[in-house]
Amino acid sequence: MPVNIPDKLPATDILKNENVFVMTNSRAITQDIRPIRIGILNLMPIKEKTETQIIRMLSNTPLQVEVVLLYTKTHTPSHTSSEYLQTFYKSIDEIGKLDGLIITGAPIDHLQYEDVTFWKELTDIYEWSRKNVTSVFHICWGAFAALYYFYGINKYWQDEKIFGVFRHSVLNRTEPIVRGFDDEFFVPHSRNSYVKQSEIDACKDIEVICEGEGIGPYLIKSKDSKDFFVFGHSEYDSTTLRDEFVRDRSKGMEIDVPENYFPGDDPNQEPKNTWRSHGNLLYSNWLNYYVYQETPYKLD
Questions:
Q1: Domains with residue ranges and CATH for the chain
Q2: Which of 18, 38, 206, 239 is buried deepest, with most CB atoms within 10 A?
């Protein structure tokens, strides 16, 4: 089944050229089926790139998915035009209930949560999701922020960036979210923040499902399966880490070559994508087992 996205969204042509099955709203309304409504609260400054990456992950499922793109009204993105937002995005008070919600990361690791311009609006969305969303998928900074808000788990800063593609393992195979996972799999990371295992262990309402080799927790879920907290970026394109590396080097920043990414750690070589299949499985498992199987047929 396809992903159902707004007419004329730029991601449409990109995904179709990759042989990804997508369907515009105008075609979807002719089908006698209720798609699951998945909101994407896009906190990244360049909206188009992130929305394309996540829609790609949502496309590999037999379910029809209606994508609702969301933004925060209290923050004006610096790299996306207001016209683009008005055309394709909505605020949370413009939509009804959702089957699932994805909250992205944001390049604001260095800020305290209360100093983030849209923090109050984000926490209002958290509260809104308790009654209006079946399951929420938090990514990277979004995962740190939600763990802090719901459970008081702090994020800690380290000067050496966790940057590269890392080996991961499953700690709890009884959860459907990891159904079909290999014993070891790879995930890209790009962050300076981390959470302490001791603080997670002290919280009885969450558990670590997967961890990364030498980098700690990767996938955490709430015991009621309402929330998933993912610290890596399984949605990343093959060249995303390279683009970040080149960008930071061009600014004169001291940044190491991303680990386990370029063949022979040579930045002149074309990077290999070793995480795509895992990423597709992660998102399709979440959509199927925690959204589609749990959400009511009539959202209202």
A1: 3-157+192-236+276-292 (3.40.50.880)
A2: 38
CB atoms closer than 10 angstroms to residue 82 = 10
233 a catalytic residue? yes
Q: Is 210 assigned a catalytic role?
A: no
Catalytic residue among 66, 140, 168, 175: 140
CB 189 within 8 A of CB 163: yes
CA distances from 25 to 14, 28, 138 (A): 17, 5, 26
The verdict on whether 203 is a catalytic residue reads no
Residue 144's nearest CA partner among 194, 110, 188 is 194
CB-CB contact of 171 with 185 (8 Å): no
Question: Looking at 51, 233, 244, 278, which residue is catalytic?
Answer: 233
How do residues 95-140 score in pLDDT, each as one tens digit? 999 999 999 998 888 889 999 999 999 999 999 999 999 999 999 9
pTM over 0.85: yes
